[in-house]
Amino acid sequence: MTDSLEAYRKKRDFRVTGEPRGALARAGKALTFVVQKHAASRLHYDFRLELDGTLKSWAVPKGPSVDPKVRRMAVHVEDHPLSYGSFEGVIPKGQYGAGSVIVWDRGTWVPIGDARSGYAAGKLKFELRGEKLRGRWTLVRMRGKAGERQAPWLLIKEADDAARPMSEFDVVEEQPDSVMDRKAPRPKAKPQAAVPDRLPLALHPQLATLVDRPPAGAGWTYEVKFDGYRLLARIDGDDVRLFTRNGHDWTTRLKELRDEVRLLRIASGWLDGEIVMLDARGNPDFQALQNAFDTSKTKDITYFVFDLPHFDGHDLTRVPLAERRHLLEGALAGKRPGRIRFSESFDAPVDQLLEGACRKGLEGLIGKRADAPYSSRRSPSWIKLKCTRRQEFVIAGYTDPKGSRNGFGSLLLGIHDPGGNLVYAGNVGTGFDEKLLAALLARLKAIATDRSAFDAPPRGLKAHWVRPKLVAEVAFAEWTSEGRIRHPVFRGLRTDKDPRAITREEATPVKAMKAVKPVKRPVARATPAIKITHPERLIDSHSKATKGDLVEYYERVAERMLPHLARRPVALVRGPQGVAGKLFFQKHDEKLGIPGIRHLDPALWPHHAPMLEVATAAALAGAAQMNVIEFHTWNSTTRAIDKPDRVIFDLDPGEGVSWATLVEATALTRQMLDLLGLASFLKTSGGKGLHIVVPLRPKWNYPEVKDFSAAVVKHLSATLPKIFVAKSGPANRIGRIFVDYLRNGRGATTAAAYSARARPGLGVSVPVSWKELAGLERADQWNILNIDERLKLRADPWKDYESSRQTLDKALTKLLPD
Questions:
Q1: What's the predicted TM-score (pTM) here?
Q2: What pLDDT does 21 receive?
Q3: How far, in Å, CA of 317 to CA of 203, rounded?
Q4: Model confidence at 521, in pLDDT bands (50, 70, 90)?
Q5: 3-state DSSP assignment of residue 315
Q6: If you write DSSP's letter for every residue of 208-256 in order, what string do you get?
Q7: Of 88, 135, 86, 89, whose CA–CA distance to 110 is shortest?
Q8: Active site residue 225
Q9: Which of the following is catalytic: 37, 56, 190, 225?
Q10: Across-strand partners of 46?
């Protein structure tokens, strides 16, 4: 007998996804049905009817309608097991159907006529008895196109007492939520600043700033700095997922902890905390934690929870820390699992607390402002006070052992400088036992290479080089003037840290820290001359960023961004209702009266209203106050408005193009420009693509520059047609990349460097070096909330931009020899 669930199982890795594996089941007394709301790459509704021991399934893009005049497309998909009918949760990224699933409706169904023959014939009539959908319905198979793998059907509501016109009642809009029971009652009261909201699929954790000494004044609370891994728990009913600080799903690595989180009296929410292994004295032991993962013996891991950014259908990120922790402590009270603990705060002078922590052998303290919101970035409202110097380093090589020692002698350590280069920081040869030496040597040999990853390899040192894939945590006494560490001791490997993000961690002087603003802050938050109205207004539900956050972002980047705006006509993208509302593209002031915006000479573009220039920090802040999110600039300046001083190649991936393919295509485009003798520079778009910029001397006119860029793109598409396409339009780009040369016409604009993008997440277009291309993770990996670490880079990845201005003479000769 053929197993009709075979197709279902082949598409899923049940070691990763929480979906049920399932099996054929015997029918019960009544046939069940379920409709699951599935927020995958596109939101749709999965309509499922029990028949012959499985759930026959259709994907309904727009969801059911109870209006008989509205026929909904229903694409027939593989059978699902009956146990899938109660599945709710998040299908992990990289898995088939990745995204959130809720049970939108459920109940029983009654066939009208013979169900098997109707299903086989393509006309199935039935009655639904659900919580939302009732009455008579019909599924009709349509005549599909030749070669279609998934048959199209229509889902139609029959005219009866349960039918209602669409203009009067849209069932998917009016009743959007799950029908599953929740396991905990709602708390009687919510904090005043709590905002009703759906549980987000992802959460970026708040990070602490290392400081040189405790801050003066009241308003700070202190907790133990745990020596472990940061862990975020997403709870959505019985579906619990555990994520690292970088968003990696560790649920399958921590199954026992997942099961204990399920026992908490929390129906939905996000927990923020740290996992540790405790030694006999009750102190965190980082090496023991590493060993627990290496041996897959994680049942004794303890989870210290210290924050609750989302809880019971509410966003608490704007709620003061003290109120969030009060809710958290109440949620963890009662029959609390032994491996999940509330991270206590201590009421004592901070100097005494730090001295006691150091005496006990702890890593240090975390200080937090009691009145501050939760910010998904590194923030001065959370600070780190360390007992000893300690940070992560990239392992780039090792030396041979000496004497009776086995394994290796020492590890060669590196950090990334402001320009992204890996620089040598010294060796560590202590902190290892025989077992660890052997285990580490095996891992090092697996990533061996002949080339050093250091920008300048240490001289006079005989070493074995490895690819910079492993991160070591090392305690040490101090940094020398040469940038080396003294008296280092190995503490363990960090599998939760990205090697590309490892830089030298410097303590910020407390007196230099930006003042922390409490939740209830004054209205005026930006440039003193600019009054910002409604700074608390949410403009992006994905990142929870407010209008005030956007204004503050443009204040922080003004110094870096203004050179990219100077003397260039600018087009503005305004979003009065935020990124989800209607967006307006403006090239002229149109009586908005944006403070600080300069009106350019009308003669620059005859027969048009004056163009605009953003030349000051006040203009940036004023524009953001008037709901401007994006800044786009021309390819020429007012010095020579008809002569472009750059060429833009906007690599725009079509549907189905992977990030790895886009990175490869970007490198290939650069190689072609190199062959043409043209220096080029790279930046992220902040959206989904990458921008290559070629600086020019303003010699050629717009038609000539546009023709040149078109010739480059046509050559790419002719040479590599499986990767590139020269025609615009979504239909032409499926599975391929359109290198948009149309950005090079007169009046065309491109998002400026450091401009935010009016998209969910508020990604930012960021200049990067070509060395960083391979390490980029996505086009919007930097946004207005997490870009602070990037802004710390002192070296400008485009420092050679102005000196690289060039002409197209030789390039045109090579490209068009005739």
A1: 0.44
A2: 84
A3: 11
A4: very low
A5: strand
A6: EEEBSSPPPSS-EEEEE--SSEEEEEEEETTEEEEE-TT--B-GGG-HH
A7: 135
A8: yes
A9: 225
A10: 36, 59
